[in-house]
From TrEMBL:
Residues 18-133 form the Response regulatory domain. The lineage of its organism: Bacteria, Bacillati, Actinomycetota, Actinomycetes, Kitasatosporales. Keywords: DNA-binding, Phosphoprotein. It comes from Streptomyces spirodelae. Residues 164-229 form the HTH luxR-type domain. This is Response regulator transcription factor.
Amino acid sequence: MTTEQRPAGPGEDRVPVKVMVVDDHPMWREAVARDLSEAGFEVVATAGDGEQAVRRARATSPDVLVLDLNLPDRPGVEVCRELVGPEATLRVLVLSASGEHADVLEAVKSGATGYLVKSAGPQELLDAVRRTALGDPVFTPGLAGLVLGEYRRLAAEDAPAAENAPAVPKLTERETEVLRLVAKGLGYKQIAERLVISHRTVQNHVQNTLGKLQLHNRVELVRYAIERGLDD
């Protein structure tokens, strides 16, 4: 069995991707956790409700949270908002029975990196978790276009305000290249291949750009790029 590993930072050894599974259905939750473990991920915890999810995620610090939206006592989007912030390294992959557009958009606005419906096959889920760990946006086919379309709509509504916004720090030519590709919906791996640079270099450019623009996550970054027409 191959151990799923996340990229190492400078001076670090490669370590297994740590995953936590949150779902209120015990059989489904344990089945997903088992599939992930057998595929080489390190399942550090599982949870069956929102309060438990927040508490255990903070205790175990997973790299990826596989999160259902329909949870007892606290909806999945609230869990996402509480755990994903400017300083957080956690990435959230929503795994939901709902494919409703409103649910998808709310999840992404709450900080989720990707959204997969439960009709996805086991291999599709494993691939989605791998890509989420790398920072790639992962969506059930058809949903990525929905999310980008919503960003464009919001950008159009906010255009007058954007015109009066203060000047922003100047990005390097390479940071702008990466930002354009992020705005087009490409994942880190695709951007690395397109620009013939490493996946880690792409991540560094995105993090530097977030810092310069004082943005918190890729959701805000994509919206910023679309507001300025960088997705053309």
